[in-house]
Specification:
The chain is mostly helical. The chain has 44 helices and seven strands.
Length: 965
């Protein structure tokens, strides 16, 4: 049994700080200790390279900005320039004898550095640093709890710390985590993630969780992640800049974590702390909890200790298999007593005891009551609910405390009912609830001075700055927010750590997740007089997003912004602090308002449509200030492009309703990349938008001319689109049609909608001559491949610019199901070769896709000894890469020429010896058919290659087989 390191002297800190926020540059990467374990594989801190074989023509398809690295206003940061140089190093693909040179090590270390930066995000550590340390003497009970002690002394176990909202779960985890760091053994890897429902999207999503875990693990033991690093290198080479031209996806990050965990546990124990699992959403929380259990079940029993400690409310994880559970509110009465006595040392003991008892295990309740008492004690001019104390005596105070509701939500309701300026409070709470990310104090100050009842967006916002009561400084703003929110909103100071942030300023948020939950469910409805007159609870949220949109969109009508030049537009943020947020987020708020059924009838008026001036101003601001969306905000977009790309259904309907009044309206209008609205909607998977564009002459308008807000997705068989107006086969500047785009990005429903028109060109080609079938097969979109083939009109053997067919691509990438589908058509040419002379079998053998090779071999039609333009066979490629299973399969056919040579005279045995692939060498020699003394055109034999690189085991094997020096 192995006990968790939670006691004893703190070890010397010789670790990389895996909990640091994003550093300007990762220091000392790759210089940590080498971890070895005689019972398992050995790891080092260098990442394996990857060979790139001619996929560069797909770069244009990946780089949707079609502008390379110059998209951000023609400026490259040093980070992007470094990525460019690293890409060149990767593409150079140095020969084996250069793999250990200092230059190569530097390139790999730089790759690791950049990979870490691609995983990191700026708020990764914010929540952990926000959690306040508990009062002295609190939290210590946990270490004496029998369930905790059993968990800590087990080899592998899952511990669920559950409790009501505000019961102190996060403070408890924070305490245990700090204790673990201070007392851990040198080799224990401690991982942590704090979900934050009031934070940014990555702080409250599984995607952010896996990004953070992999970042921390990669800092600790990079040698365990060769596939992750290889994927990163390839994508930088082919797609461009991470988090700009491409992003990591949740499923692939989960794969990297799950595949690496057993490897890590071969050499080092791991302890994972996860806080506030419930704050990632109901479905995600349940799925993650199940994942936790599956990790323990799937791990082999021979690894080192693995522990998970997570906190979560009683809901949504109700029926969950976890033998180790501790309920916080049943254990924390002493901690609450310590907190109350330390916070209110001067009030009588009976009052303190009453607060502790009424709290019923909920720290937040005790905190709010204590705060109200403290504020009354400090400011005697304020009457605390009619209590005139101390003159009135503490009995009166006790009486008032007794009237405070026990439930947090009822306490919040009582506070909201006491708010005097409900309209101002509503605005504050709307923004704190629904802003895309927590706003800085400067941003929220600007929000509060903008009049939400503006008749139009063209009033200069700076006029509001002179409004009476506008707090000129941060301290005044803090006091105003505290007073306006009855203490339910707080200002969180910036991090003290040297992190790379968009802004390192104080941000405004609710004091607890339960406060946000209350306002979303009840509080906003209480404050919104307009919403109370309706019977639709969605209107409250829809109206909130509508108000946020209005505030955002006004910024692009400000004269200083519309008339700014490229040299001074970035300086506008100091004058208009919300400008960056407005550029990044107005689209989200329209979509959310629409999805919550808030009327969108007058939105076009805010854009001044049909004028495109406001959209063009937004594009320019994005180009210089919002790089996170600059790829999608390609210059030359119209409002019709924007609403199609983001599926703003209400706005699109409004445009189609009014287009009859516009003589020059063009539904096929193109942006700077040649995208039509239909191409954008198809690419981004927006089914309803594609439907409406195809039915553009049949917009859903009732007899009174009003837009019908009810959207229904019709069965495919009911579509009778008017494609005489919409160009269904339009191509963008890269030759992508709506069908190619939908096939490439895996949007099956849209592919079927387009095919159902009977007017789509099913064999259209983009600039790289990739058809819809090639695109779907290349990216593993099986259902789309089936849909295309079912038309009986698709050219199965169509070739792209590299002479590659769908079968070659899907074999190269290991999509075995699609390989079967293509072969089952009876039309696919199994031996067709691309411009490098490589067939499906060669690519599958080279890439190590065993299942694909087996499928191809079982046809009995494949040319096993087919050679590429370098005269390399499938066996030579498999031997070079060390794919021993593949080598066995090819040899078992009894058709593979074991002594075949490439254009340099190298055989499979030479390549295996050259690469240090001992198992492959043994397999080849065991056939008794291999020429062990064959030499290449330089006169080098297999034995010479093995000797040159110091592969002693291979040298011995070859010598026993009769190899001569």
């Amino acid at each position: 049994m192995s006990e968790l390191p939670l006691a004893g002297p703190a070890p010397q800190n010789n670790r990389n700080d895996s909990h640091a926020s994003v550093p300007t540059s990762i220091q000392n990467f790759g210089s940590g200790p080498q971890y070895t374990n005689t019972s398992g594989p050995q790891y080092n801190n260098t990442a394996g390279g990857t060979q790139i074989t001619g996929d560069n023509h797909i770069t244009a398809e990946y780089n949707q900005n079609y502008g390379g690295l110059q998209l951000n206003g023609g400026h490259q940061s040093s980070q992007y320039v470094v990525i460019g140089s690293i890409t060149q190093i990767f593409n150079a693909n140095p020969p084996p004898d250069n793999q250990n040179t200092p230059e190569d090590k530097n390139a790999k270390n730089a790759s690791l550095d950049l990979c870490l930066q691609s995983l990191a995000f700026e708020q990764m550590e914010n929540r952990r640093m926000e959690i306040k340390t508990g009062a002295k003497g609190t939290c210590e009970w946990l270490f004496q709890h029998k369930t905790y002690k059993a968990w800590a002394t087990s080899d592998r176990d899952l511990l669920w710390i559950k409790g009501k909202p505000g019961s102190g779960k996060s403070t408890l985890l924070h305490y245990v985590l700090e204790k673990a760091f201070n007392t851990r053994s040198n080799d224990t890897i401690i991982l942590s993630f704090f979900f934050h429902g009031r934070g940014s999207e990555l702080q409250k999503s599984p995607l952010g969780f896996y990004l953070s875990l992999l970042y921390q693990l990669l800092c600790e033991i990079p040698g365990a992640f060769p596939e992750l690093l290889s994927t990163f290198e390839t994508r930088c080479s082919k797609r461009g800049i991470p988090n700009k031209d491409w992003k990591w996806h949740e499923k692939e990050l989960l794969y990297f974590f799950e595949s690496s965990l057993p490897v890590v546990l071969k050499s080092r124990p791991v302890c994972l702390f996860v806080d506030a699992l419930d704050e990632c959403g109901e479905n995600a929380a349940v799925d993650l909890a199940k994942k936790f259990n599956s990790w323990f079940k799937d791990l082999s029993s021979d690894g080192l200790p693995f522990h998970i400690y997570f906190t979560c409310r009683h809901y949504p994880i109700v029926a969950f298999e976890c033998r180790s559970q501790i309920c916080v509110e049943e254990e924390n009465a002493k901690d609450i007593s310590i907190y109350v006595h330390s916070t209110l040392p001067n009030i009588p003991g009976p009052v303190q005891d009453m607060i502790v008892k009424r709290a019923s295990g909920v720290f937040m309740w005790a905190r709010l009551v204590a705060t109200r008492i403290i504020e009354r004690d400090i400011d005697r001019s304020v009457d605390w609910e009619g209590v005139d104390w101390p003159e009135a005596g503490w009995e009166k105070v006790e009486e008032k405390i007794g009237r405070i509701p026990n439930e947090l939500s009822d306490l919040y309701k009582q506070l909201v009912e006491s708010i005097e300026d409900k309209q101002e409070a509503l605005k504050l709470f709307q923004w704190v609830c629904f802003a895309k990310r927590p706003l800085s104090l400067d941003e929220l100050r600007w929000v509060m001075i903008v009049d939400p009842k503006l008749d139009g967006p063209h009033k200069l916002l700076k006029e509001s700055k002179d409004a009476p009561g506008f707090p000129p400084d941060n301290e005044g703003m803090k006091r105003r927010f505290t007073r306006l929110s009855c203490g339910l909103v707080e200002v969180v100071p910036p991090s003290n750590k040297p992190v790379v942030l968009l802004f390192n300023k104080p941000v405004v948020q609710f004091i607890h997740q339960s406060v946000k939950d209350f306002f979303v469910e009840r509080g906003l409805f209480m404050l919104d007089s307009g919403a109370r007159s309706t019977e639709n609870p969605k209107i409250v949220v829809g109206n909130a997003h509508y108000q946020l949109f209005r505030t955002c969109i006004c910024h692009f009508a400000i004269k200083k912004v519309t008339q700014s030049s490229s040299t001074d537009i970035s300086d506008l943020e100091s004058q208009f602090p919300l400008l960056r947020y407005a550029a990044e987020s107005w689209m989200l708020h329209i979509c959310q308002s629409d999805s919550h059924e808030f009327p969108q009838d007058n939105l076009l008026d805010y854009f001044g449509w049909p004028s495109e001036n406001l959209v063009q101003t937004w594009e320019r601001v994005c180009f210089y200030m919002a790089p996170s969306i600059s790829v999608t905000a390609t210059l030359g977009k119209s409002l019709l492009h924007v609403v199609s790309q983001y599926q703003m259904k209400g706005l699109l309907q409004a445009i189609l309703e009014r287009r009859a009044d516009q003589h020059n309206f063009d539904i096929n209008v193109r942006d700077g990349c040649g995208h039509t609205p239909l191409i954008l909607a198809s690419k981004h998977g927006h089914i309803a938008t594609v439907q409406l564009l195809l039915h553009s002459d049949k917009a859903n308008i009732d007899a009174k001319g009003n837009i019908n807000r009810k959207w229904h997705i019709k069965p495919f068989s009911m579509f009778l689109p008017d494609t005489n107006k919409v160009d269904i086969n339009a191509k963008d500047n890269n030759g992508m049609t709506p069908l190619i785009s939908a096939s490439r990005y895996g949007h099956e429903a849209i592919v079927k909608i387009l095919l159902n028109t009977k007017k789509v060109d099913i064999n259209a080609k983009n600039k790289n001559s990739m058809t819809p079938l090639i695109s779907a097969a290349c990216y593993g979109n099986e259902a789309i491949v089936k849909a295309l083939l079912n038309t009986k009109k698709v050219d199965v053997n169509a070739k792209d610019n590299l002479d590659r067919t769908a079968l070659i691509y899907t074999s190269k990438r290991g999509h075995e199901a699609i390989v079967k589908i293509l072969l089952n058509t009876g039309q696919a040419d199994i031996n067709v070769k691309d411009q490098w002379g490589r067939s499906a079998l060669i690519y599958a053998s080279e890439s190590g896709h065993t299942a694909v090779v087996e499928i191809l071999l079982n046809t009995d039609k494949v040319d096993i000894d087919g050679k590429d333009k370098m005269d390399m066979t499938a066996l030579i490629h498999a031997s070079e890469r060390g794919h021993e299973v593949m080598v066995k399969m090819l040899l078992n056919t009894c058709k593979a020429d074991i002594n075949a040579k490439d254009q340099w005279g190298k055989s499979a045995l030479m390549y295996a010896s050259d690469g240090g692939h001992t198992a492959v060498v043994e397999i080849l020699l065991n056939t008794d058919k291999v020429d062990v003394n064959a030499k290449d055109q330089w006169g080098t034999s297999a034995l010479m290659y093995a000797s040159k690189y110091g592969y002693k085991a291979i040298v011995e094997i070859l010598e026993k087989a009769g190899a001569l020096d």
